[in-house]
Amino acid sequence: MAPVRRLVIDVLKPHDPPLLAFSQRLTETDSVEAVSVSLIELDQEVQNVKVTLEGSDLDFEAVEETVEGLSGTVHSVDEVACGEYVVEDRPTPQDG
């Protein structure tokens, strides 16, 4: 099976831990080499964040366990890149 190189997931998390600590904890997950977290929506009790993870062979189950251990929930997997390298998204004629 081809290795997973990039995952983009939608996560709902409480305010605690803050984004910095949340991001740092995700980078400590086995198979994760880099993380980027963007705040999408904020309300009084939770934050909706977009999490981009990269590695040479990401383990989704380990990532999901880490998120849940931080009291978060993975709502969806929004992007996956697999194979020898990451194919960057480029405009095509279908994009209009």
Textual characterization of the structure:
The chain has 96 residues and is α+β, with helices and mostly antiparallel strands. The protein has a single domain (4-86), classed as MTH889-like domain (Alpha-Beta Plaits, 2-Layer Sandwich). It has helices spanning 19-27, 60-69, and strands spanning 4-14, 34-42, 46-54, 73-82. It has a 4-stranded antiparallel sheet with strand order 2-3-1-4, covered by helices on one side. It is globular, with a radius of gyration of 14 Å. The N and C termini lie far apart (34 Å). The relative contact order is 0.32. The mean pLDDT is 95.
Which features does this protein show?
96 residues; alpha+beta; Alpha-Beta Plaits; 4-stranded antiparallel beta sheet; 2 helices; 4 strands
How would you concisely characterize the structure shown here?
The protein has about 100 residues and is an alpha+beta fold. It contains 2 helices and 4 strands; from the N terminus they run E-H-E-E-H-E.
The name of the CATH topology is Alpha-Beta Plaits
Largest sheet: 4 strands, antiparallel
CATH superfamily: MTH889-like domain
- End-to-end CA span: 34 Å
Number of domains: 1
Reading side by side through the largest sheet, how are the strands ordered?
2-3-1-4
How much helicity do the residues have? 10-25%
Query: Can you write the helix and strand succession as a string?
Result: EHEEHE
Unreliably modeled segments? none
Beta-strand share of residues: 35-45%
Task: Find the structural class using helix and strand composition.
Answer: alpha+beta
